[in-house]
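Intended use. Records like the one below are meant for learning the mapping from a protein sequence to its folded structure. Do not use them to infer anything beyond what is encoded.
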Amino acid sequence: MKKTISIFSLFLFLAICSNAQVLNYEVKQSVAVNYKKLAQIDTIVNSYITKHWENGVTVLIVKDNQVIYHKGLGYANEAKKTPMPENAIYRIMSQSKAITSLAVLQLFEQGKLDLDQHVSDFISSFKKSTVLDKINLSDTTYTTVPAKREITVRDLLTHSSGIGYTDIGSKEMSAIYNKAGVPSGLGYFDANLLEKMTILGKLPLAHQPGEKFTYGLNTDLLGCIVEIVSGMSLEAYCNKNIFAPLGMKDT
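Structure written out for the chain above:
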């Protein structure tokens, strides 16, 4: 059964009040809104669906803390022609990065770690990092040069550590990580996070720490640091310190 894969949520927040309030999802008309122009959203999004660029879309527009537009367009399941509900819950890739980064900043506020603290203080394999120099992709042999400095928590938060991605990263780093058994972290993860991050610490960086932005396993490593510092699993930490206090049942 083919299920919707390529779907997105489009959230347009217009002049939302700065103080947090619980939204009333009842759509109300506003004299400050040009509804003829607003109707163009239906036309544009439905054209995407007709062209199969997207299977289903949810659009929510809030103005002055009042919902003025909220629709589900297209299909939640295209094969069954199941209409997209307004309150659909999507799998949004990489949003756990923001939550994990929040956990790190909480621990920073509590004085349990420092942003410029070396990652090797938590996982010793990152002590003497190297940087990739040359690689032979035919057999995944490579040479390295020493890193000019150790990577820090700040490097991880800004994706400037030189750590790349498996599968979706560069062909060089993906080859090195795959050979060493470091997963991408995408989808179902059935492994010991600390063990995999320890292996990652022994592998070369894509570039010198702090020299450029490279989207990679930085937040996976931050999640491991949260577990080490808090003595809790990342899931348990986030449930206790983020989701429960916010009453956050979903994103």
